[in-house]
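Customer ticket, subject: "Can you confirm the structure for LIM zinc-binding domain-containing Nebulette-like?"

Message body: Hello, I'm evaluating your service for our small team and ran a test protein. I'd like someone to confirm that this is what the system normally returns, since I don't have a reference to compare against.
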Amino acid sequence: MNPHCARCGKIVYATEKVNCLDKYWHKGCFHCEVCKMTLNMNNYKGYEKKPYCNAHYPKQTFTIVTDTPENLRLRQQSELQSQSILRPNPGIMTENVFFF
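Agent reply: Thanks for trying us out. I re-ran your input and got the following:
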């Protein structure tokens, strides 16, 4: 039995079949999600099981780290350390004392 195209849903015959991204495609249906440029096995980039050309491949960006309990603890510890460094300790003499 012949598979169905991931783009158009029609049957894909062996002469026009592209097997990529764990799916089957017609050669003409295997194109960039953004600009519709026809792709092949040498010039495509897959992202979330969808084909993209090099120009439109989604860029990986950093995400904001959520306030997990561990991150909150580390932030609090860092703030406490910063405060103890910046605040003079009343038990320590801050004047310069020279002994001769």
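A couple of notes from the result: The longest strand covers residues 17-20. Strands lie at 17-20, 23-26, 45-47, 50-52. Feel free to reply with more questions.
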